[in-house]
Amino acid sequence: MKHWLPILIIISSFLPLKGDVLFTESFDVDGALPAEWTTDNDNNWQVQSGYDGNTTPPALSFTWSPRIFDYSNDVQTPDIDVGDNAGVLIEFDFALDFWGASDHTNGMTISYDGGNGWVPVLNYEIGPDAGFVSIDRRTESFTADIESGSDLKLKWTAYGTDSYWIDSWIIDNVKIITLPQLTSVTIESANEDPSTAVEGTNIWLNFMADSDLSGDPYVQINGNACNIDNLGGTNWVAYYIVQASDPDGPLQFTIDFTDANEVDGSTVKQTTNGSSVVVDNSEPHHSQLAE
Q1: Cα–Cα distance between 284 and 286 in angstroms, integer?
Q2: What is the 3 state secondary structure string of 147-205?
């Protein structure tokens, strides 16, 4: 009888599918990696239809055979165009068909490169004290930050001291999905010229999301937390009053938000229409408030 014990390390969370699918791979051709996918070990990394947990065969698998020792072997996607998205959601099905407890270690690390080098985001490791560990098939996901103008690459790294003690790691149905976004962001002051401000000027930062949000967004202007109002539906406004300590120049802001599916959007730091408010606190000014 199999005894089910928790895996030693799991850094993950399930995020429901939401947004536009930019890329998908379901490994439909048994025996062949998809075009432009690469691996440094095409004996153990295979597309195949066997093993427990492979419920939508074929799937990408790292199998125990041929038996290898002190190994670290990757499989990697080609460069994937994600458009002008500053962040995306990666989702894939995952399972481990385990063979037996041992004095050895076997693990899997998932990483991405969004233009700033490889970033490890998920790790699973079965060590000598773990006992018998299998991972039932599940959907895993994580978000990736994308450097402006960069493509995205994904990498799965199987590692360990003796592959005999696993049957197969299984990966299937890889998707890259857009994150929730703000479709409109504008900023203005209460001055007759809404692009200017001095100490005491009221500021409005208006924004609209592409879906319902979970709770209030968190907004800062020049590092100061702002009061927030929901104007109805997915329309929001943040309020700010220019401080004496605000430096001359454009007001800087950040908007952090989470959609109703608990998926975080990328932090927004720019308006969508090019609007800005420039502070001039260098010398006394007459009031410029509009009548």
Answers
A1: 7
A2: CCCCCEEEEEEEEEEEHHHEEEEEEEEEEEEECCCEEEEEEEECECCCCEECCCCEEEE
C-alpha 263/C-alpha 13 separation (Å) is 11
- pTM, two decimals, is 0.78
Instruction: Give the CATH architecture of domain 182-279.
Output: Sandwich (2.60)
Asked if residue 227 lies in contact with residue 213, where contact means CB atoms within 8 angstroms, the answer is no
Domain with CATH 2.60.40 in the chain: 182-279
Rg (CA), the chain: 25
Q: Could you read off the pLDDT of 160-210 as tens digits, one per residue?
A: 999 999 999 999 999 999 999 999 999 999 999 999 999 999 999 999 999
Longest dimension (CA), the chain: 83
What would the pLDDT profile of 68-120 be if each residue is shown by its tens digit?
Answer: 999 999 999 999 999 999 899 999 999 999 999 999 999 999 999 999 999 99
What contacts 244, CB < 8 A, 6 or more positions away? 199, 281
HSE toward the beta carbon, residue 74, CA cutoff 13 A: 13
Which residue has tokens 């790294």? Answer: 157
3 state SS of 19: coil
**What class has domain 9-178?**
mainly beta
Residues of the chain with CATH 2.60.120.200: 9-178
